[in-house]
Amino acid sequence: MRCAVLVAFKDQHAFNIRATDKENDKLKYTISGINAGFFNVNPDTGNVTIKSKLDREVRSFIIDLFLYHDKASKSLTIILIDANDNPPMFVDSSYNVDVKENASVNTILFKVSATDEDTGLAGGVKYKIDEVSPIDGESPFIIGERNGEVKLRQALNYTSLSTFYRLKINASDGGGITCTETKPLSSVIYGFITVLDVPDLNPRFLSLSYSGSVTEGSPLGTTVLTVVAIDQDTGVNDKILYSIEGSGSVLFNISKTKGVITVISDIDREAIGDSITLKVKAAEENLNINGMVAFATADVQISIIDINDNTPMFYSCGINCVEESQFRGEIFENSAGTLQINMTVKDLDQNGKIKLEVDGVDKDAFSVIPSVTTSESTVQLVVKDPQKLDFEKKKEMVVEVIAIDTDKRTMRSTATVTIKILDMNDNSPTFPEDTYKLTLAEHSPVGTVVANIMAMDLDQMDKDKLTYRLLPQSILKYFNVTQQTGQVYVTNSTLIDREVMSLYSATLQAIDTNNNIGTTVLEISLIDINDQPPKINRESYNVFVEEGKPFSLQIEATDADDPETQNSKIVFAIVPSEYSNNFTIIPDTGVLTNSTVLDREALDPKANGKIELNVTATDQGVPALMTMVNVIINVADVNDNKPIFTEASYDFSVKEGAKGAFVGSVQAVDLDQTLDFNRISFTIIDGSFGSFIIRTVADGVGYRGNITVDPDIELDYEKLPKDFTLRVEAADLSQSKAEVTVKIKVLDVNDERPEFRPSGPLEVKENSTVTGPLGSFSALDKDGNHSLVYEMVSCECHCNATFAPCNWMLVNQAGVVTVNPDAKLDYEECNQVRIGAQVVDVYTEKGENNSVSAEVMVVNILDINDNAPEFLLSDAIIVLVSETASKGTSVAQVTATDRDSGINKAIEFKVTEVKYEDTNFQISVIRTIFEAVTTQQKDFYVGIIQSSEELDSTKKGKYLVTVTATDRGSLSTSTELEIFIVDKSFKVQLRFGLPLAEVIQSQESITLALSAATKSAVYVVSVKPDLGEVRGPGDTLMESYFVYRNGTAISSDLVEKKLSEPENYLLLAQYNLDNVGTATVIVEPPDSVRFVLLGLVGGLIIVLTVLATSLICTRRSYRTKLKAAKAMKLTNMDATDNQRGGPVVPGTNKYTMEGANPVLNLNIDTVTDLGFDEDSSNVDRISVNSFDDGMSLHSEKDRTMMVIQEEDEESIHIEPLGAALAQRANKREAGSSQMGFTNPAFSITDL
Length: 1247
Description:
Largest sheet: 5 strands, antiparallel
Strand order of the largest sheet: 27-26-29-33-31
Radius of gyration: 74 Å
Shape: elongated
């Protein structure tokens, strides 16, 4: 016997042992064997459960057992079915591989392997990659689902992508039944892939270009600059080798590995130029992946800095310039001007500066131009002394031109210039004396003749043709000579100043016709006059002295006038000024001293301790001349003053809520006038409570203590103290102190939200055109400074008992409520407006600026009388029996309402016109024979139309009565009533075999029975005894009209026919109705004996009829049940404002105003009261008459004519009165409240 068992857990059901016994004895089950310990068996049921876990992977999948019960045994082989209870397990704990970035796609990176101890589908392993990190987009790796080979899906890149990846690899089996459910099991392992960089990128210089500089002539090996290149393959980071490409390698070298560029050859800027560009190559040491050298190049701009290493040289220039040292030229003797010698001087250095000088034997005869030049210039010789060019004395002259480098004077070169003197007429005029000594008072007037000097010329051609001129040119500012006469005179009185120049030397020339010149020297001495003021030796004096100490200063002056005269004697004095009284000066010696103690603080602080005096030095000449000098005495400050506040106290304010806000500044000065002594620092010593800080800053002449709110403190006007009193201390560097009180007031910041004040309801009349304000919203803002702006957020009108949006009202920014000029207020449409408004504080500085919620204001629309009354139309037909209408008889009623309210809706009715329309449709206006009486029922006004006089009963046709309804505002509406006339021809005479008293007593019951029988309204005209001789005495005649609801009157024949029907006859037989005829029928006088006999027989018949009817009515249903029974059922449910003292009783017809039925025009006599309304009066009741024909109590229809309507309901009573009395009896027995019944249709009471 075999049993298959899944891998199982403790207490799990394994299998059941079933055995039978032919004798039906109770069996006991047991298990034995090596593996019996794995199972439990219920000895009674044979139910076997697992005792300990069975694991196929731990034990053999075949288990042998022996099963026993008390009479038999059985061997059992259990085969353990494998369950998916082992997840795949990876062979390795993790995988780490290195992969070159250029590995090709589909390269196998590594292979994972996992085993599953389960068998079958549960032992199959599938692989997948759950997660790759980092990843941007699609995973670059894939794994073989079955073989576990991890391959490269897309190319790697060490530089632009990640250099490291972590793969979460999942191994899952094929699934199968586990211990609890059927699903695959899985396990995960992580693989780590490191991307190795390969040399696939060229190196890169750190800069796109380089620039440097080197001084020409720099020593070999001088470093110019360093270039740096890196291997972009950062993972490889190959060594970079540098080299210089092109001709630059002759002058410069670059270190192969470090990129340092150095000088390897002599650098000559003059040969190379101002700069040179090198092309530097950076190459990787090893070949790249393509077997090539990876390299990059960069341009290096090297500027050559010039040095002064070239001597200026002379050149002779034609087409080309050639270096030359010998030059030649020629000039006429005694010639002046320049000598062209084709000489050029050059200095090859950049910005070289050359100085040219003349030397040699004849250097005094010539000068060179330019004397100074830069780099390159043409050189010319200028004759300096033409007289030295004397052919008779020297035929050739030689000079040397020397070019000197001004920056390096040792660098010079010399060129020799040979000058050939050309012969010419050289006899010049001569003067008798070589020198003339002349005198002249200084500042002599212009034109003053100094002397007359004449010259002679040996050449006869020049006799008396000599001309004179005075040299040098500069002397002409002072003196000049007359050209023809040789007279020397003054040209400028002011310039001939002895103190400037006491002796003038001039050359007087005499020129012949050949421009030969003869000269003599004039020495002009000036005689002194007092024209020079004293000259103080210094332009100003600036001395220093500490305050409080003595002061002394020597003022020195000289006078350029002749020292032997009074013109040069000097006297000193102090010019009066602000501080001059504090000093004295000795007039002769110029010694200046202080006469009072010097106090720095007494000086103007703007002077910074300086006292300025003006001291004069005056000579004694005539007129006396004076010179003044400025003397500045710097009084040095000492610390002899303490700080002083500029104010006795300070009052500031600051807005709440501003951290670090500036509050105000206190100012203090220290009269000491130097920074070391007047520097002040401020401290808050009391009253701040940690809310304020003070910082000291310089402020003009003193210092300012800026008080600010502590940046960590936020003042709150509504919570914290609103006023602070601070004690602020000012101290200088020597701790001399002063104290001041600072009061700070915290100002309210607009940070509170506005709040609405309750706004009472407003009122406005409908149709109002008022443009002014109706009222306004009012809001409160706790902030002191605020500006509230209101805006309407909603406007709803109360219309038809609900609120709906409308545009009747406006709210302006001031919160003023006004009527929208485009809207029309109509109380009858909407009687109330509800306005929602929001208020905003435009000055809000912080937080929300609007109220928390909108405010609602109610505007009640007041009614005005703008609506005319409106009639409630009725389709009821009004019938008037003229014969029954006496003065005051109600013939009809109208109902009207007014949409206005209050007093405006009160209505007054009036008959304004009466017209008569005959049977030929001819209409004529007649006198007003009707009047209207106004009454009110709830919100309706009822106009009862009454006859104002007895009516003509012979008229046929109808009355057209115009009724006008007018309200209190004189607004009116009219309606026209059609009142159909029933004339005498329709009067029916009924004769009853009863005495008059009995008929009158039963009139209501009789009328009701007649109405029920004819289905019409019955109008009783008269009840009187029958005086005819046809009938016996005691009969009674009742004259009546029968009218249908449509206004049609019934003739006597039709009435007779209807009353003759069996059911109607039985109904009226009790009243001895024995004849129906017209009113003109003459009745025979009654026979007394027969009357008595007939009365007895009639009474017996009535008794029998009543008894028979009572029995029959218990089994049949009357289709003509009166509405009274039905109305009685509604008695307790219908209650009106006019109903007082109990419910309305069917069968009654009391009217509240006059006790008369306004429809049937019947006067209610109190004697006809049935007596049932013991607790109620005969008035103030609303009719629930059975003639109401099911109409609502408040209906406008069928008010004028009411008949009994046929219904399908069954009744157990013979007549309405019986129904009413029966129901009343039931209610009395039930203890219900008492009710009254009144019906004017009966003239007597029939119990």
